[in-house]
Amino acid sequence: SSFRALSRVALTSIAVLISGETGTGKEIVARGVHRLSGRRGPFVAVNCAALPTGSLESMLFGHVQGAFVGAVQDEPGIIRTAHGGTLFLDEVGDLPLPAQAVLLRVLQESEVVPVGGTYPVRVDVRIVAASNKSLETLCMQGKFRPDLLARLSGYKHTLSPLRERLEDLGFLIGDLLRRSNQSEAHRLRVHLQVARRLATGDDLASADDA
């Protein structure tokens, strides 16, 4: 199956591109790739649609002290924070073109130059990207770099809409509950009746104790 193929790819350093509608579990799949990879560094998730345009390069590539007003100390940036691990670029299609050019250089050279810095810094980062848009269409519209798409497309994995994958609901809900249940005092659980209705696709409105 495609998931078995993805688990084999996870053991390599190949970039992975995950496509699918919003809410299909793209980040959960990305975290699974990271866990299977055995990489010792962290899993760092970035919502490309929420990156502030004005400080984009500083956030991604870091800066040195004094690089601009307010840069009171060296900061590694998101990419160096993921050194040795996995960088998850969520909604990568929303990354502005200037940042795409710099990201491409990072992938080609495996190094970053912090804002205000003189020398490049080597980085070892595995890239997993995700998009709910067709990156091929964005390329044709001039909104996404074809050379960057080629770099991100080491292995492509498409997630079907969740309404077509009811068998995956248990896995997705379990992952969400594990991340939500930070304390024993406020543990969240799914009522059995709700779980049954989710599995069958029935309307939840009449479920008691939902």
Quick summary:
With 210 residues, this protein is of the alpha/beta class. It has nine helices and seven strands. It has helices spanning 2-10, 26-37, 56-61, 77-81, 97-109, 135-140, 146-152, 169-180, 192-200, and strands at residues 16-19, 43-47, 86-90, 111-112, 121-122, 126-131, 155-158.
Architecture overview:
- With 210 residues, the protein is α/β, with parallel strands linked by helices.
- The chain has helices at 2-10, 26-37, 56-61, 77-81, 97-109, 135-140, 146-152, 169-180, 192-200, and strands at residues 16-19, 43-47, 86-90, 111-112, 121-122, 126-131, 155-158.
- The strands form two sheets. The protein has a five-stranded parallel sheet. Strands 4-5 form a two-stranded antiparallel sheet.
- A hairpin with an 8-residue loop joins strand 4 and strand 5.
Beta-sheet strand percentage? 5-15%
H-E string:
HEHEHHEHEEEHHEHH
Specify the biggest β-sheet.
Answer: 5 strands, parallel
Secondary structure class reads alpha/beta
In what order do the strands lie side by side in the largest sheet?
2-3-6-1-7
Residue runs with pLDDT of under 50 for 5 or more positions: 204-210
Count of discrete alpha- or pi-helical segments spanning 4 or more residues: 9
Mean pLDDT: 79
> Whole-Å distance between the termini?
34 Å
Please give the share of residues in helix.
25-40%
Tell me the radius of gyration: 20 Å
What is the general shape? globular
Number of strands: 7
